[in-house]
């Protein structure tokens, strides 16, 4: 019975590569935030001012940008509204937006590309930890679990 149970678990892991693959963690020393990085994504570059980094999938079709920032006038909601407006000006059709006092999530499309962005408030609203994931529309179903795990994994730091 124990052998059958072990084989069932092994079969499940082999049948679900995203479950078996290892996520890594990116931690930012300047702002103190952390985020899980999906399997198959590799570091492409770190920002010059040490606020974040850019990762991409092995085929280059998926890009994950992560960064910390200070918000203008210590107004988290206003800062994020301005970011969404800028994305709209760049041609993104923002189709989803959800927010609370300490976080904002939005997504949209531009042609065949999908954008999913999330920001969490840090430093009592004076800063934010952010990520932006872009990928091909054909990958929406495959990316749903990764998007949700990324959103849950973004943790603000204690540095201000």
Brief summary of the model shown:
The protein is of the alpha+beta class.
Shape: globular
Q: Please report the distance between the alpha carbons of the first and last residues.
A: 54 Å
The total of beta strands comes to: 9
Helix content: 25-40%
Rg estimate, integer Å: 17 Å
Read across the widest sheet, the strand sequence of neighbours is 3-4-5-9-8-7-6
Summarize the helix and strand pattern as letters.
Answer: HHEEEEEHEEEEH
- Point out poorly predicted stretches: 1-20
Q: How many helices in DSSP terms?
A: 4
How many structural domains can be distinguished in the coordinates? 1
Q: Would you tell me the overall average pLDDT?
A: 86
| CATH architecture annotation | 3-Layer(aba) Sandwich
Give the C-level CATH assignment.
Answer: Alpha Beta
CATH topology: Protein Transport Mog1p, Chain A
| Main β sheet profile | 7 strands, antiparallel
Broad structural category: alpha+beta
Q: Spell out the CATH superfamily.
A: Mog1/PsbP, alpha/beta/alpha sandwich
Strand content: 35-45%
